[in-house]
Amino acid sequence: MTPSEQWLTDCRAAGVDPLVIEHTARNFLAYLDYHSKQGTRSLPLLDWFRYYALENAAELSAETIKVEGCSVDERSVRPPSADYRAAIFELLQRYLEAQYASR
Q1: Which residue segment(s) compose the domain that 30 sits in?
Q2: Is residue 69 a part of any domain in this protein?
Q3: Which of 9, 42, 57, 97 allows an S-S link to 35, with CB 3.0 to 4.6 Å?
Q4: What is the mean pLDDT of residues 43-56?
């Protein structure tokens, strides 16, 4: 199994949409590219991801979700759990490693 095939299998096993990982990876690579062009220091992946996850959680909590006429209530709309964020980080690391290995 190639690294990219393994990565997709791992996403499915963790219940994470591969597009979430690809989107997050693009954001990280854009961040690195920006700092490289500016000649400034960038954060390592783990530190960047912690900040990124906090920003996403803040945006999610700031959104007002109106629940009317359906079986979902306000208690059903929750930010991602720590376990889910940990799975995303692990998959993000594997994805980036697979991308660099194929270059």
Answers
A1: 3-64+74-101
A2: no
A3: 42
A4: 93
